[in-house]
Every structure is written in structure tokens, then in C-alpha cells.
């Protein structure tokens, strides 16, 4: 489809198991799914003209249970001088709805701050209260949902875009960590994941009995990595590779409740592609004469972001032998432009198990739209074998 074809379908109607969410923005990326206390499904993402531009803001849409149409997109953030990205919605045990997101100047992820604000529902949309930056250090990024530790502390998965004095961020020094709050987000401490250079987008999954596994995107574009915690998330092992390739693009993992884990991702890597681009933000035209950060790992950008696949594990995420293609395409991502038709990525997925045994998935479609796909319980039984 052309960008105009996609725009014509962005009406939110769920037809044949899929929908393109409504949005006023020409670029829409980084979907996140959560269930609200009233049962509605919420999808949040960032939208604007181009990732890294100051007009990038967080948007969200609601799908009530039993409805076949997503509601209008509501803009939840609007800082005038920062690109507001990677929304995460957290429903607290008390039923409060919180939005966390990053906010950075241009392509400088090492200057990002994590913001937090309360959300509430008014009619067919979410409304945001006044936001405040958290006390997490500059350069902190997020992508996965917070979870609760066994003592009630909040655990927010982080990746640290560690600043290098006088040098431009490239991702070469990014590492993984967990933010811990014992006062409902008023303050945070940071626990780093050892030997995690290049491991980002940490996604923890509770395996029961204080056992947890976490999964990582890799800047090196090799494999999805996995680490373990045996003390309920207080400490973590160093990440090790799984059998799923990774293209330096986002992943999402969830427990299906039947002993199986589900992961959505693009199971391709630099080993199978020659596609390369200079950096994530090479189209911004920034007036920045600093040299690229030296040392660290060697990030690889530009590997195709397709197919969009659902992978299933029955061994706690050590391996994912079942790989179901949700949607396929060229996956071309050498440009972030949403209007010239060159970007063909199917990327940055979110997934959320349903109470009926089905699964909701949302992902970026050609940087033009957010696409929602619903798999039924029968679909899941067939896919998982």
C-alpha cells in the first residue's frame, strides 16, 4: 500500500482481525498496549512528522470490550522543545492510570528524561494531567511496562543511553537496568544488569516462585538475548543469546498463562542482510559537529524490519521453536520518512494476552500507521500446537 492508501484505512475499524488506528500524525510508531480498569484496551504510541523532531508527541486510542472500532486519537503530551517517545502505560494496584514516556532534544537520546503523568478517561478518550520529569538520570529510556516486586515496589525496565562527554550518541554505550520505586514513583533507584552492553528494551516476565526472565533487543543486531533473576527481580544475570535473531529493533514478550511465553519481533539479523544506514537519526539534519561516540559496541542500523512474527516458547524463553508470521513485507527501513513510500517496516510490536485465550498485537506499519491484529483463542491453539 502507498502512504495515501494506508491513510485512507486509518479509521480504527476492526475488520478481518485487523485495524489501522486513527491518528492526525503522518508518522506513527512504537505501539504499547494495556488494559484499563474498565476493561477497555488502550494503545499508546508516538506521532508527529519525524522521529526526533520536537512535534513528536504521545497519542492514545481506546477500544472498548465488545466494540469493533477504535476511538479517536488523543494527544497526551506536547513539550515544545523535545521529541516525546516510547510511551508506557501502567495501571497501579489502586487502579490509577499512569503514563511514562521519554523526552529528548532532537536525536540526543543520551539527554532523554523519563516523564510521568496521571491519565483519566473522559468519554471516548484518555486525558492527561500535568507531567513531571522523574529523577531517573539523563539518558534513561524505557519501552516495556513496569511490574510489581513481591514487596510491592515498582520495577520499571530501563536502558541507559550513557552520555559520553563531547561525543554524539550512537547507541554504542547503551546498557540495561531496572528502576525501583518504593514510593509510588516519587523517587527511583537504578539497578544495572551486568555485562549488558548493547542490550536494550529489557522486557521482564514473571515465571513464578521468584523466578523471572528478561528479554532484550540488541544494538549489535545478532540475537534476542535473555537474562534471569532468582530473587524476584532484585538482581539479574548477564544476558545470553536465545535462538531468535534480532535486527536492532524492538521486541515484546508476555506469559500466556499456560506455561508458554509469546514473543513478537522481527526474527532477522545483520548476518542475513547487507542493508545499513548511518544512524537512527541521520535524516534530522542536526547542526551538531561533535564526533560520534567512540568505543563500546558497534551498533548496526538498517537491517530490514519484517516479517512481524509471533514466536512461542515452552522452556521459559530459552528457545522459541514455534514462529508464526503475523504479516510479511519487504521491511525496508533505510529511511524514517512516512510520506515517500520508501519505508516498509513492520516493527516495534506490543502484545497483550486476552482473558478468552486470544492475543492482541499492535505494531508500526510503514511508519505511517499503527496496526492492530487480534488473534482468537482458536488461532492461538493452532499456532502454539
From TrEMBL:
One Pfam family linked to the record: BNR_2
Superkingdom field: Bacteria
Record region (Disordered): 224-244
Listed transmembrane segments: none
InterPro entries (UniProt xref): Sialidase, Sialidase_sf
Domain Sialidase: 39-361
PANTHER family: BNR/ASP-BOX REPEAT FAMILY PROTEIN, BNR_ASP-BOX REPEAT FAMILY PROTEIN
Protein name: Putative neuraminidase
Organism: Allosediminivita pacifica
Amino acid at each position: 500500500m502507498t502512504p495515501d492508501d494506508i491513510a485512507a484505512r486509518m479509521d480504527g475499524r476492526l475488520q478481518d482481525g485487523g485495524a489501522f488506528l486513527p491518528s492526525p500524525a503522518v508518522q506513527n510508531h512504537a505501539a504499547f498496549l494495556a488494559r484499563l480498569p474498565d476493561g477497555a484496551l488502550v494503545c499508546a504510541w508516538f506521532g508527529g512528522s519525524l522521529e526526533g523532531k520536537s512535534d513528536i508527541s504521545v497519542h492514545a486510542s481506546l477500544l472498548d470490550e465488545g466494540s469493533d472500532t477504535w476511538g479517536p486519537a488523543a494527544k497526551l503530551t506536547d513539550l515544545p522543545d523535545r521529541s516525546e517517545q516510547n510511551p508506557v502505560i501502567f495501571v497501579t494496584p489502586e487502579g490509577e492510570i499512569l503514563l511514562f514516556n521519554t523526552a529528548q532534544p532532537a536525536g540526543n537520546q543520551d539527554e532523554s528524561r523519563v516523564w510521568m503523568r496521571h491519565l483519566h478517561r473522559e468519554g471516548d478518550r484518555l486525558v492527561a494531567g500535568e507531567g513531571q520529569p522523574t529523577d531517573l538520570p539523563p539518558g534513561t529510556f524505557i519501552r516495556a511496562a513496569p511490574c510489581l516486586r513481591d514487596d510491592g515496589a515498582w520495577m520499571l525496565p530501563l536502558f541507559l543511553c550513557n552520555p559520553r562527554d563531547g561525543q554524539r550518541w550512537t547507541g554504542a554505550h547503551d546498557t540495561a537496568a531496572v528502576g525501583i520505586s518504593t514510593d509510588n514513583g516519587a523517587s527511583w533507584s537504578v539497578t544495572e544488569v551486568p555485562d549488558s552492553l548493547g542490550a536494550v528494551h529489557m522486557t521482564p516476565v514473571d515465571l513464578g516462585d521468584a523466578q523471572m526472565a528478561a528479554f532484550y533487543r540488541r544494538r549489535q543486531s545478532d540475537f534476542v538475548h535473555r537474562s534471569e533473576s532468582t530473587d524476584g527481580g532484585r538482581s539479574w544475570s548477564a544476558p545470553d543469546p536465545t535462538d531468535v535473531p534480532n535486527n536492532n529493533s524492538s521486541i515484546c514478550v508476555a506469559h500466556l498463562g499456560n506455561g508458554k511465553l509469546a514473543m513478537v519481533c522481527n526474527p532477522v539479523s545483520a548476518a542475513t542482510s547487507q542493508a545499513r544506514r548511518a544512524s537512527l537519526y541521520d535524516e534530522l539534519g542536526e547542526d551538531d559537529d561533535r564526533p560520534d561516540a567512540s568505543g563500546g559496541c558497534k551498533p548496526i542500523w538498517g537491517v530490514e524490519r519484517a516479517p512481524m512474527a509471533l514466536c512461542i516458547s515452552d522452556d521459559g524463553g530459552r528457545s522459541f521453536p514455534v514462529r508464526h508470521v503475523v504479516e510479511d513485507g519487504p521491511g525496508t527501513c533505510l529511511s524514517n520518512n512516512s510520506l515517500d513510500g520508501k519505508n516498509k517496516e513492520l516493527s516495534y510490536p506490543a502484545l497483550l494476552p486476552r482473558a478468552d485465550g486470544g492475543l492482541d498485537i499492535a505494531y508500526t506499519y510503514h511508519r505511517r500507521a499503527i496496526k492492530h491484529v487480534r488473534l482468537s483463542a482458536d488461532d492461538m491453539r493452532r499456532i502454539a500446537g
